[in-house]
Every structure is written in structure tokens, then in C-alpha cells.
Amino acid sequence: MKERDDMQQERDFESHRARVAESRFAALKDKTSRLQADVRRLQDDLAEKRMHRLESSESILQDARSQLEVLQRSLSPSVASEQTELTKVLESLMDDNEVLKRDTAELQHFLASLGKKYMRYRKR
Description:
Elements: H1 2-74, H2 77-123
């Protein structure tokens, strides 16, 4: 009889432990889902901000190019020759800026893909 009671207590104890573990697992799973949703939302927000900055930069660069063209047309020939070198420097800077933006976008894409791979790895 005592042995039977001991076995019943042990089964009850193990059953309780299993329920507690399942409850913890479910809570962690819910928390993980919420965090993943937050990460996705933040990534989307970040992508939107990057796109806005890129569009803004494009607009500023286009305005600068237009102003340079207007300035070149309005200058006298002697002043225009002096301004040509300055214009070349400015155009070079704008081109460098374009390259940097492309490189930045490439790096951001690379980091985002690494983040996704990391999240998949963590799910395992």
C-alpha cells in the first residue's frame, strides 16, 4: 500500500512538473512570437526611413545639379572656365555620394539577410 501511494505521488509530481514545463514553453513561444513581430515591424520602419532618406538625397542631388547647370549658363566665359574646375569637383563629390549610397544599401541588405538567418538559426 505504501509503495502504491509513493508511486502515485511520484506520478502526480511528474505530471505537475510536465504541466509547469509546458506552460513555460507556451509562454516563451508567445514571447518569441511577439519579439519576432516587433523585429519585423522595426525592420519595416527602418526600411521606410532609409527609403525616405534616399528619396530626399536624390532630390537634393538633382536640385544641386540643376543649380550647377543654371550657374554655368549664367556665367561669363572667363568666369565659366574658372568655375569648370569647381563644377568638376562638385560633380565628383556627387558621384562619390551616389556610390556610397549604393554601398550603404548593399550593406544594409546584407545585414538584414544576416539578421534573418540568425532568427532562423535561433528557431532551431
